[in-house]
Amino acid sequence: MRSWKIAAVGTAAVALATVAGLALFSGTGQAATAALGSNWYASAPYVMPEDNSPPDVAAVMDATGQKAFQLAFILDSGGCTPSWGGTSPISSDTAAGALINTVRSKGGDVSVSIGGYGGTKLGQNCGSPAATAAAYQQVISKYSLHAIDFDLEEPEYENDAAVNNELGAAQILQRNNSGLYVSVTMPGTTSGAGYFGTLLLDKSKTLGFTPDNFSIMPFDGGFNGATDQINALESFHGLLESHLGWSSATAYAHEGASLMNGRSDTGEFFRQADFQSVLNYATSHGLARFTFWAVNRDRQCSPPDNNGQTSGVCSSVTQNSWDFTKYSATFAGATPPTSGPSSSPTAPPPPTSAPPGGGCSAAAWSATTTYNGGAVVSYGSHQWTAKWWSYGDIPGGPAGVWADNGAC
């Protein structure tokens, strides 16, 4: 499971230049910004703003096209007090605020993640859903947030009262903050989610709480690459159907994948090809979220394999900087810049003889074009409309992305 401060290298100062038109962090509140589309919050990869050698997010945005990041983690520093990592109260924070302003100055935005693996969670100490929500509301108000992630892991994951506080708080925040994007992240197993994951789903149903997505982390549990991860996501899809009473389409539309790039905590390996395979699955099935832990690790170690160790500041696999972040940007619908043979997600090869568009008025489908839901193309003398985001999925193919509007 994701460690909230694996191989931490200490708090790092984040440089911040004055940006015209955007107030700098003042310690009293965060400059407001317009919300991005939910596709960006759904793609936001995790960043630790105060530990694990925080990356230059401006450079990451320029290199990848990514516009949103998931800042981690809010914990309790005592007495139901929200803080970064359990040590830096948000009331006196400057580092996270500086990073947020940098992202927003470039047209992006952030979500904030609570919990993670280890540490003391607010749900454990705040005493009630209302008190827990009040603590998180401080974070939302402080940073003018449009999105928040509940990363429910140990030690509260097996604590029914704590999980009740967290899910109840999420529901209250969802009601009190119009348009707030809420994701719930939990450990994954090769069978989707374990016993406590099913209890979490059952509790959500009892509360009548539906987040934008439930995401599993298919790593640190005996996974061997993308095939195992996709199988786990399919199993989790079944759990969403059976425990929440959802149709298959509704389950996919509320399901997410939260991956780990490179070498996992337990020594599994997830390379660029694995990310591409899971991305293809996520887009072809209409999953609601595709993210990973973490941008701090999205760079090559020295030596590249890190001598068989897992690091919080590099991936332990051969890569170009920010290779894995480009998959998140692609999920959001962006076309990442290219900077090398392994630095950009690639589409499946186009068919060797694509049927012509015939007399259709819509532009011909292209295997190298990114399409958003609602896009109209021609292919095989038929007109087609995209049901959701698509890249490289052939109209009429097994992915089911395109609705056939009939012959032109």
From TrEMBL:
Residue ranges occupied by any GH18 domain in the UniProt entry: 41-335
Bias (Low complexity): 334-345
Superkingdom per UniProt: Bacteria
Signal peptide: 1-31
SMART domains in the record: ChtBD3
The keyword Chloroplast appears for this protein: no
Ranges where the record places region Disordered: 334-360
UniProt KW keywords: Hydrolase, Signal
CDD domains: ChiC_BD (cd12215), GH18_PF-ChiA-like (cd06543)
Keyword rRNA-binding found: no
PANTHER family, per database record: BIFUNCTIONAL CHITINASE/LYSOZYME-RELATED (PTHR42976), GH18 DOMAIN-CONTAINING PROTEIN-RELATED (PTHR42976:SF1)
Protein name listed in UniProt: Chitinase
Annotated organism of origin: Fodinicola feengrottensis
